[in-house]
Amino acid sequence: MAKIIYIEHNGKEHVAEVQNGLTVMEGAVQNDIPGIDADCGGSMSCATCHVYVKEDWYDKLPKKEMGEDDMLDQAYEPNSKSRLSCQIMVSDDLDGLSVYIPEKQV
Amino acid sequence: MIKTDVVIVGAGPTGLFCAHQLGIIGLTCEIVDNLDKIGGQCIELYPDKPIYDIPSVPECTGEELTNNLVKQIKPFKFNFHLNDRVQELTNKNNNWIVKTTSGKKFQTQNVVIAGGVGSFEPRKFPTKSAEKFDGTSVLYSIKDKSIFKDKSVAIFGGGDSALDWAIELSNTSKVSLIHRRDEFRGTSASVKKIKELSKKNIINLFTKYSIKDVKGNGSLEEVEIKSEEGEIKILKADYVLGFFGLIMQLGPIAEWGLNLDKKVIPVNTENFETNKKGIFAIGDICTYPGKLKLILSGFHEGALAARGCFKYAKPNEKYRFEFTTASNTIKNRLGVKE
């Protein structure tokens, strides 16, 4: 279980307790946090669960797997802290992780 | 005006199998899809990715699944209307009049929406100023490459479309290729060619840059790009091309007066009808308690929606359940010999 902090583009914060083994995307969807669409359902086939990981957390996360950057090319305004939230698996180590939700997904 | 029992919106696996079920029970249908090919997400998003959860098919790709579904409905000779989008639905004397973007018109008793998560559209530049030039000098696809001859063209993107067009247009135009990172997702042969052309100064290559602004008085004159560190460069450009892949938009479906729950349509689980009589929704676009977004669920939903269409298409007939193994009527429809 980890506490994940989702910060909307307008600054509004949502804190969700997310079970280990779920993804950061699933944590958002199950807790009705707006701004993460996840159109493809987590198969790394769209780019609508895009988040910006908070600076000090970015390097602590497991590295991107092949294909994630290719999808991020197609995201709305990606930057060097961009991740697809469906590819971040929650574990105890991620307790306190903060992610910023982009202005829009599409 | 094309008359049919059912119009299916979406040629993905769910729409295709629903067409099969309509054919089996003796109804006609017309299938409309916004993409230029049959297969929906299976073809557009993951043609080569293996799927492992189609019953009795241990492993197949999206492309194989699509090809088999198309083969399965071949006996019914249904028409596909590709590269076209259902724009408008209006009710007239218990019939639905369906209009498409290209101007086609259908008269039908039933519409089955099998639209996945909406229609695929090109992802556009986030910059507001790009809208002003959209369709004239800011483009997301190329119809006539001769307009770029002897012009300055700035191409954004890192996939095959961006790379292939950069290579192709560099023969006749002054091409800049801009991509947000060092790596490209295009084929390695194209990436190699791009690097060669860049070395010979035939293509201006800018990596780790993205678009900031487009400017021009009347016509487009320049494009501003910025690096992640905030460094800004100004490039002369008559045309700006963006190749960022496709995104899915609900589009006109949202305007048809259907109940919507976020981006999906609530249906009953008896026949997958929506809040509008004669309009059904199946596959990823429908929702109900326990909904699973699996292709197999879409097949089930399509089979039941097809039966739901029957009572409106043939109000004076009673639907009779039959097995394909035993029914001669069905075998005739499939064109198989005894």
For the report, how would you describe the main beta sheet of chain A?
5 strands, mixed
The CATH topology annotation of chain A reads as: Ubiquitin-like (UB roll)
Low-confidence stretches of chain A: none
List the helices and strands of chain B in order: EHEHEEHEEEEEEEHEHEEEEEEEEEHH
The number of domains of chain A:
1
Whole-angstrom Rg of chain B:
24 Å
Structural class of chain A: alpha+beta
Give the strand line-up of the largest sheet of chain A: 2-1-5-3-4
How would a textbook summarize the main sheet of chain B? 7 strands, mixed
CATH superfamily of chain A, by name, is Beta-grasp domain
What is the helix/strand order of chain A? Answer: EEHEHHEE
Low-confidence stretches of chain B: none
Helix content of chain A: 10-25%
What is the number of domains of chain B? Answer: 2
CATH top-level class of chain A: Alpha Beta
CATH architectural type of chain A: Roll
Features:
heterodimer; A: 106 residues; 5 strands; B: 338 residues; alpha/beta; FAD/NAD(P)-binding domain; 2 domains; seven-stranded mixed sheet; five-stranded parallel sheet; 22% helix; 28% strand; elongated
Quick overview of this protein structure:
The complex is a heterodimer of chains A (about 110) and B (about 350). By secondary structure, chain A is of the alpha+beta class. Chain A has 3 helices and 5 strands; from the N terminus they run ββαβααββ.
Task: Describe the model.
The complex is a heterodimer of chains A (106) and B (338). Chain A is an alpha+beta fold and 106 residues long. Chain A has a single domain (2-88), classed as Ubiquitin-like (UB roll), CATH 3.10.20. Chain A has 3 helices and 5 strands; from the N terminus they run ββαβααββ. Chain A has helices spanning 24-30, 55-58, 68-72, and strands at residues 2-7, 13-18, 50-53, 82-84, 98-100. In chain A, strands 2-1-5-3-4 form a 5-stranded mixed sheet. The longest helix of chain A is centred in the N-terminal third of the chain and has 7 residues, at 24-30. Chain B is an alpha/beta fold. Chain B has 2 domains: 2-120 and 247-334, 3-Layer(bba) Sandwich (FAD/NAD(P)-binding domain); 124-239, FAD/NAD(P)-binding domain. Chain B has 7 helices and 21 strands. Chain B has helices at 13-24, 41-44, 62-73, 160-169, 188-199, 295-313, 328-334; strands at 2-9, 29-32, 50-51, 60-61, 79-81, 86-92, 95-100, 105-113, 119-122, 138-139, 152-156, 174-179, 203-207, 209-215, 222-227, 232-236, 239-242, 246-249, 265-266, 279-281, 286-287. In chain B, strands 1, 2, 5, 6, 7, 8 and 20 form a 7-stranded mixed sheet that branches. Chain B has a 5-stranded parallel sheet with strand order 10-17-11-12-13. A 3-stranded antiparallel sheet of chain B has the order 14-15-16, with no helix packed on it. In chain B, a hairpin with an 8-residue loop joins strand 3 and strand 4 (60-61). In chain B, helix 1 runs parallel beside helix 3. The longest helix of chain B has 19 residues, at 295-313. The two termini of chain B are 37 Å apart. The model of chain B has no long low-confidence stretch (mean pLDDT 94).
